[in-house]
Amino acid sequence: MARAIKEVQSKLDEIAMVKERFKFKMHSMEQAVAVGDWRRTDSSVPDAVVGREEDKWKLIDMVRLSNYKEKVAVIPIVGIGGLGKTTLAQLLYNDDKVKSHFELKLWVCVSENFDPSFLIRKVLESATKKEVSKDLEANTVKELLHEAIKDKRFLLVLDDVWNEDREKWARFKNMLSSGAREGSKIVVTTRIQIVADIMATETIVPHELQGLSKAESWTLFEKLAFRGGATSSPNYVEIGKEIVGKCRGVPLAIRTMGGLLYFKDTEQEWESVKNKQLLGFGLDGKENAILATLRVSYNNLPSNLKRCFAYCGLFPKDHKIEVKRLVQLWMAQGYVESSQSSFLDDVGVEYFKSLLHRSFFQEATKDKWGNIEYCKMHDLMHDLAMEVSGKETIVLNICNSIDSNLERQHTDLERIRHVSIGDSTEPWNSDRRLFFPNFLVKATKLRTYMNLAGENIYWKGGVDEKIFTTMTGMRTLSPNREERKIMPHNIRKLKHLRYLDLSFNGTIVLPEEITCLVNLQVLKLYGCAVLQKLPRGFGKLSNLLYLNLQECTSLKCMPVGIGKLSSLRELSIFIVGAATDYEAARISELKDLNNLSGKLRIKRLELVKDELEAVAASLKEKKHL
């Protein structure tokens, strides 16, 4: 069996090398046809457009302005799938003021194929309203287009652009600009922020499209869900508003739900729709349009980003995600590929930025240095993450974790890889005792366990001591304080553990066994106020990258050997030990920790005996601090 696996792996490696060498791309033929048919757009405006008047007038003003530096200015519209970017572009395209301002209007649906020569043909077809022969040479096509747009102020809409290649964009724009009249405009719709930034004219800020307000969302829903646009009963209104609330202002979601409910005649059917996940499957068993449009974004991701995105389903909806923590979690699962030229965490941050630019995250907030600290996921994106992760990921909130039917809901425990316990959206009493989901002891292939519900939850009946020892493949472990009570004697069995969060432990004494976790990358001991020392063999943790000791107010010194952890990227505090204490590290142990970044606080500097010892710390070499 082992030999067969090696042979398969060897063949896969060979295929990967050929793929990379010849730049092959993999596509599903069935998917390609389906997406292509669904995504074709034109300039016609759909019925029942609500809440886009302000956006439309802002864009009309932008396209009519003529004081841009470039002869052909580019105005991007950016936002997640389903917000109505194409619809907004159609409203703009068909407005009378726009029609009178431009002598020529052109519309091209781009999608994933951004080939400059191919697109120039499409622009020519839009300009001449005739099909361009495939036999025509590229130069002939350019000459014909030059004649078609010569001395004309044109408006070109490039719908659904994914291209991130600056060179391709420059080639296309140069071919198009030749002969164009000053004041011509290109409006681009895209889901990807980086595409908008690449294509936008220097002085133009891309127009970021937002979701509809509650009132606008309901108005749109009413037009689509009720016969003749009129509500039939207060009960339908109440159910409908709950459904609309789940759509979070995304017009495509509202349209899909409204269209589905239009043909549902009973309150029972409406209730059934309300109680289903918004994404996934409708009552007829077919994928709804929301999933289709968001899946296009997901399917376009490289495989490593797909894994990273799917993992984010572990966080509860509307959870404020700490970006640094998220990257560490990805690293722990092996989702971040190593690079010879960059630190692993820096690569992970680039992964995050790629997903952010593609609108998989939103509401990004920055610290005073401009680094992104926190973000959120749109509810629809969260539903997509849960859907694509399948049965591998489950999120239990503090209400359903006492549900006696919970184990029956998750019968295929062997498939579960990632579990989080998140807070409920409903008010609850912090003294309330809940049953721990001890059935997870059967989920022997678990890779992640995170308790995000806080420290004030007490598990009625206790926690099964086998819960963590049976999960020997665990990579990420973030328990609450009651769960931590059973850990000290069993920790060494978790030999694959890479991320361990023991923060805010009021009784913690780190066992020597923790030094057996040689794969550990992240150890968080934030707020462990009674922790007095780290284990003597701490230097064995050769793969440790992050050691958070903030607010460990009783910690007296660093252990001898900590200087062996040359891969450390974060060490929040270093406490200089006394010369008479043979178990305490001297400041010279900082010598080889030159990969440290962020902030380092050094305490008890008065114990540094002389200048030579201080110089031995090589603080000048800590260039990332």
From TrEMBL:
GO terms for biological process: defense response. It comes from Linum tenue. GO terms for molecular function: ADP binding. It holds the Pfam family WHD_DRP. The keyword Lyase does not apply. Residues 64-227 form the NB-ARC domain. This is Uncharacterized protein. Residues 482-619 form the Disease resistance R13L4/SHOC-2-like LRR domain. Residues 314-385 form the Disease resistance protein winged helix domain. The keyword Repeat applies. Keywords: Plant defense, Repeat. It comes from the Eukaryota.
